[in-house]
Amino acid sequence: MNIKTTTEDALVIGLVEKVSAATVSVYLSAAVCDQNSPATTAKLILFTELLLSGTKTLSRDQIQEKLRLLGSHIDASYSTGKVTLTISTLADKLKPTLKLLNQIIINPAFAATELKRAKQTLINQLELAREDAKGIAHTKLNNSFINPADNRYNHDPVEISQTVSEINRIALQTLHQVFLNRQWTVTVGGNESGLKQVLEAIKKTKKGYQSVAPETAIIEVPLRQPSPLLLHEVKSKQNLELSFGAYLPLELHSPDLAAFQFGLDVLGKWGGFAGRLMSTVREKEGLTYGIYARTEEIGLNQTGYWRIMSFFSPKDVKRGITSTLREIKKIHSSGITKSEWQRFADILKTGERLTYDSLASTTVLVHSNLLLGRTWTDYQNYRQKLYHCTQKEVNLALRKYLAPEQLVISIAGPIDKAKDDLASLS
Amino acid sequence: MSKSTKKTSTISKPFHLIKTVGDISEYQLKSNGLRVLYKYIPETGVVTTNITYLVGASNEQNGESGVAHMLEHMLFKPTVADLKNKSAGAAMKFERDVGVILNANTWKDRTTYYFSYGQEHFTRALQIEADRMRNVVLTNKEFLPERTNVLSEFDMYNGDPKFALSVGLTSTAFFSHPYGHETIGFREDIESYTTEKLQCFYNHYYRPNNAVLMVIGDIELKTVLKEIADNFSHLEPEPSVETRPIIVEPKQEGTRRFAIQRPGTTNILAIAVKHPGFPTSGWYETMIVLKLLTGGPTSWLQKKLVDTGLASSIEVSQEPTKDTNIATIFITLTKKITHQTMEALALKIIRDFDQKLIAKELPGYIAKSLTEEAFSRDSSLHIAAELTEFTAAGRWEDYFNVSERLTAINVSAIKQRLESLFTEDQLTIGTYKSL
Hints:
The structure holds 2 protein chains of 2 kinds. By secondary structure, chain A is of the alpha+beta class. Chain A is 48% helix and 19% strand. In chain A, a hairpin with a 7-residue loop joins strand 9 and strand 10 (304-312). The radius of gyration of chain A is 23 Å and the shape is globular.
C-alpha cells in the first residue's frame, strides 16, 4: 500500500493506493461550524440529511435510485462541526458515482417538503437518545471538560429538539455556501486510476469556490471545576455504563503526548485484552466484560481529556469502581514496569502493521489524521516517537498528567438499583 | 511434473488435497481429519488464522443454553502446559507479548477463534490453537470469575430492547428446532453451569475431525502444511463426533406472539419471519426482500413509516445460519401510533407490494449487495470471517458463488418470496412496551 498526504489546489489530500483494489472509498470533510450551540447542531444534522434529499434536477428518490443502480453508497454525516461525505463504490462504477456526487454537492435543492420530513425524523431520533446509557455517560463526562461553545461539546438532545423548528431553508442555503467555500479535506483509498479520477473530479467540483481554512482554535482550559460524580438514571438498562476521566492539558504536538499515550495504553489499551484493566478488573476479578482507556478530543492546539469506558452490574458497581481506581492510582504512583515498556512497544507496532492489511481501515486512519491537522509524515513521526519512548518518560508523563485527584466519574443506567453503593462513593 | 509441484507433493504427504475452488484449497490431515482452507495473499506481511469448530448453540440441550459460548470464553484460560510454566492462557499471552488481533465468537452452528498477526508468528499461532483444542484446564478457579464476565455480557445485551425481543422471538418461533434460544443462553442456565458440564462438551466437540482451520494471508503453502502437520497431527479425533441430527420444526399454524414490558420510553414492534438457511437461493432472496423493505432511505417501510413520523427507526437482522431461521424487522414506534395499529399498517404495506416497483428497484438492490460483498473482502481478517459462515453451513466453496446467486434473482422469485415470507404460518410478532 502506498500512502501519501499533500496539499494541492487548496485541498488537503490523502491518498491510499492499493494496486489490486477493486473498490474505491472517498472521505470529503469540511469544517463548517465555528461556534457550537443546540441550534447549530440541529442545523448541521438537517444539512447533512438535506444534501442527500434532492438536487435541482433530481428528487431524493431519483438520487437513491441512481445510487442503487450503480451499487454505490454516498452518505453525509457531521461531527465536531465538520460535515463529511463518504463515498464507497466499485472501481468500475466510480465515474458515474462522482458525477452524481458533484450534483449533490453543488446543487442541493433544500426543498421545503424534504426539510419538513427531515425535521420530523430528527425529532423522533433525538427522542431515542434518551435511553442510550453508554452515550449519555460519555457525553456528560465530555461536557465536564469542554466549553459549550466548542464544537466538541455535545448538546442535550432535548435542547437540540427545541431548536429544530427555527431552522429554515435560508439557513441551510447559507451553510451550503460556507461548505462550498471552506477548505476540503479529501482522502481516497483505491487503485491508481481510482485515485486519479477522484482527485480530478473533486478539483473540478471545487473550482470557482474559495478554500478558507478553519480558524485555528486556541488551547482550551476547563471552564469550571467539574463535579466528581455524575449520575443519570436510565431505568430500562440492566448494567450501569461508566466513563471515568480527567482533563488532559496536552495537545497534538505536545512533546509529552506520546509518552502519556503509551502509559494509557498499558493501563487500558482500547480493544483486546492487553491492558492492565482487562487483566485485573475483567480477567482476575470478573467484574466487567470490557474496560478500556484512551485520550479524547485532543487536536491541533486543542487540549482534551483521557477516559476509561466500562460497565458494571448494579451489585458490582462499587467493587468495579474501587478496582478501577486502584489501578489508576497504582499506575500513577508506580508507573509501568520494564516488561510492560518492552512489550507495549511491540504491541503498538503490531497494531499499526495490522491496520495496513485493510484498505478501508488505512483510508480511515489517514483521513482522521488529516482532520486532526496531522500529515502522514507527522503521523509516522508520532508513531516512531511512541515506539521509542523510554520507560522513564512514560512514567513521568503518567505522574504529571493522569491526575487521579481530578477524576470525574460519569454513570448512566439503573442508578436507583445501586443508590446506596453510589451514595457511599460520593 | 515440475520441480515446484514435486516439492508441494512431498510436503503435502500428511494431507489429502480435497479440492481447490478459485484461489482457496482444502486439505485434510490424514492422521485425524482436521480440515484446512488456505488462501494466499502476497506482500501484506500479515496472516489470519481462524479455527472453526462445528459446534454452536444449536448443539446444546435444554437447561444448558449458552454452554458453547461459555466454553469459548474458557479457551482463553491456561492449558496444562501454561499452568506448568506458571503462565497465563497462551492466547492472551500472545496478544500481551506481540499485540496480535485475537478474539472468538459463537453462533448457532459454530464456534470460531482467530488471530491476525505478522507472518513471523505463524508457528506460535498454530501451537496455541493446537494446545487449546485439547488441553485447557477447566477448574472453578478459572471458571467462576469468567462466568461472572459472561453474566455481565448477558446483561449488556439484555439491556438492549431488541436483544430482549430476539430472545423471546426465537423461543416463540421454534417449538422443536434448537435455534430456539440466543447463543449466549438464558441467564438462569448460565448461573447453573458446572465445570463438569463444560468438560463434557469440550471433550466431545473440540476435536480435529470437528474443526476447520483457515489460513489466509502472506504465507507460503509449503510452510502452512508443514507447520500444521507438525502441530496438529498428534491430536486424537473423536470418532463419535457427529453433526447434530436434522430436526424438522413442526408446522406453524398461525401467527405466534411474544410480549415484553419494561420501564423506559422505547416502544418496538418486531416482525419475524422464517426463511431458508444459508447460503441457499432462498436465503439471498430473503436478504433482497428485506432490503426492499428496509434497506436505505427510500425503502418501502422507511418511506411509509419513518418519513411519515410514525416510526423513529427501522432495523433488520438476518443470520447466515445453516437451517431455517428467523429474520426480524424491528420498528421503533413514535408516540403517534400503537403497536396494534403499526402491526396492521406494516403488514399491509408489505403484503400490498407493487410488482412494478420490485421490477424497478430489484437491479439496484442486487448491485448494492455486490458492492457490499466486495467491501466485505477487504482484509485477511474480513475474508476469514466471511469464509467462516460458508464453512459452518457446510459449503465453503459457495464463497465464490455470491455474485452468481445474487444476479440470478429475478422479479418472480422476489414476488414469491414476499408472498410466502409474510403469511400467518410464518410470522412471529413481538412487542416491547415501555411502562
